[in-house]
Amino acid sequence: MYTKLLSPLLGNRIQPAQKFPQIRLKAKEHYQLTQRRRGFLSLSDFQDDNVDFIQHEYQPGQILEVRREDQKLLALGAFEPQLGRVDLFHTASQTPSAMLPVISEDFFTARLRDLRERRHQDLQQCRFTNTYRMVNGAVDGFPGLFIDQFSDSFLRVIATSALAERLLPAVSEFLLEHRAEELLLDSPTLGDRARLSFTRPTLTLPNIYVEGGVQLPWPPSKANRQPTLENRLLINPAHRRARHLLREISAGKRVLCFNDRSGAAALNAVMTAKQVVVVGADHAALEWTRSALLFNHGAPIFEQCELIQLQALKELLHSTFSLGMPPPEVVFVEHDSNSLATAQQWREFLIGMMSKGLLCVGTILITAQEGHPLGVADLSARREQRFQQESPDSTVSFGDMSPLIMSAAEACKLQARVLRTFSSSWDFPTFPVDDPSCFSHVCLIEEPSVNNLHEVDKGKD
């Protein structure tokens, strides 16, 4: 029974209520809500005696009334001391009367139902796609909860906050009612490799999900036991537009895909490209790409597409290594939390590729970077803890990526022109203020201008 896995969470489910403990902000801190449009408030924004009382009397995930110093109600939020904040999920302006709504599991499942229906309608405009982010945390009124729907049958649910964990049983029941067959769960209590399967007496749906007409196999149960941050057999839906653009510009060209998660970029490229080479260090991921190519196109596809495994990035850049084809005309490079995430790692990679001639004049470069793992800011701390010895620096941000690419090109006496940038491909109900959590850059490598060439030579002198 699926409740066995969720049993540690069943005793802390949300009970219907309309009145909650109050927590008061310090003077003038209420401007954080309107000026910065933040979905949370730091505990340091509240009066110290209030915070001490709440910490002593209530458990993490407790729903609170957030009030100004003059007692005016501003919002409802969840107490998250382990994250050092109060997550907001309902503002007073959302309630037309002075009466607070009844907060219960039904309150959140109704919100979840509206999100699912609205995004399903939006998705119908994207032909042949059933993969998208159904719930995107606080911007959707679910602080700490992220749901990636790969199909009606297969979903990934990430809960990073105590409130999100309290909602997991209700969310699982809702998804079960809507034909879910397998959920990948990630939460502080359940860990990062939990899997919830629902047994059905009827015929199950095909074990595939679709993005832009590309059919991707759903990994078997054993493969889905991998930790969330290490599971590269599933795509990151945030980069959908970058993969679609790759398909459009690859027509008749030679394409190199590096660190390709689940083979999704290669599957898009082979639909139009003349030749595709997929390079990666993970044997299991390459074999998964091979099976996905066979599934979509059959064995003849390997006359057009080649997969190459490397022990490390430096092997690709070694002087004796050869791709077995002329320099690629399009290069797609995807983030990897361990080997290609920080500014230093990206710079070394790009300079190495340019020095070896794999990025040269006329090449189109597409980079797909995760500012936060899978677009979830709370997972960054886990990523830094897990990969601390290999890459202690933080991941490169959206604002730093363009200058980094240009600087690497200038170091190799080339010039990179940014043609286009993409933010996360999922829908936002309000325009985000912060930098995108996942993003892509499309660049054209060109000959340097006379001024740039002079500056490089002068710098060497």
How would you explain this protein's 3D organization?
By secondary structure, the protein is an alpha/beta fold. It is 30% helix and 23% strand. The protein has three domains: 17-94, PUA domain (Archaeosine Trna-guanine Transglycosylase, Chain: A, domain 4), CATH 2.30.130; 105-230, RNA methyltransferase domain (HRMD) like (Transcription Regulator spoIIAA, 2-Layer Sandwich), CATH 3.30.750.80; 237-460, Rossmann fold, CATH 3.40.50. It has helices at 3-10, 31-35, 48-57, 105-123, 162-177, 240-249, 264-269, 283-297, 313-316, 343-356, 379-386, 398-411, 450-460; strands at 22-24, 40-42, 63-67, 73-80, 85-91, 132-136, 145-149, 154-159, 182-187, 191-197, 208-211, 214-217, 254-258, 275-280, 305-309, 330-334, 364-370, 415-422, 438-446. It has a seven-stranded mixed sheet, sandwiched between helices. The chain has a five-stranded mixed sheet with strand order 1-3-4-5-2, covered by helices on one side. The model has no long low-confidence stretch (mean pLDDT 87).
Keywords:
alpha/beta, Transcription Regulator spoIIAA, 13 helices, 7-stranded mixed β-sheet, Rossmann fold, 461 residues
CATH topology type of the largest domain: Rossmann fold
Query: Ends: how far apart?
Result: 71 Å
User: What is the average per-residue confidence, as pLDDT, rounded to a whole number?
Assistant: 87
Side by side, the strands of the main sheet go 15-14-13-16-17-19-18
Which segments are poorly predicted (pLDDT under 50) over 5 or more consecutive residues? none
CATH class descriptor of the largest domain:
Alpha Beta
CATH architecture descriptor of the largest domain: 3-Layer(aba) Sandwich
* Number of helices, where a helix is a run of at least 4 consecutive DSSP H or I residues: 13
Q: List the domain count as a whole number.
A: 3
Helix content: 25-40%
Strand content: 15-25%
Characterize the biggest β-sheet: 7 strands, mixed
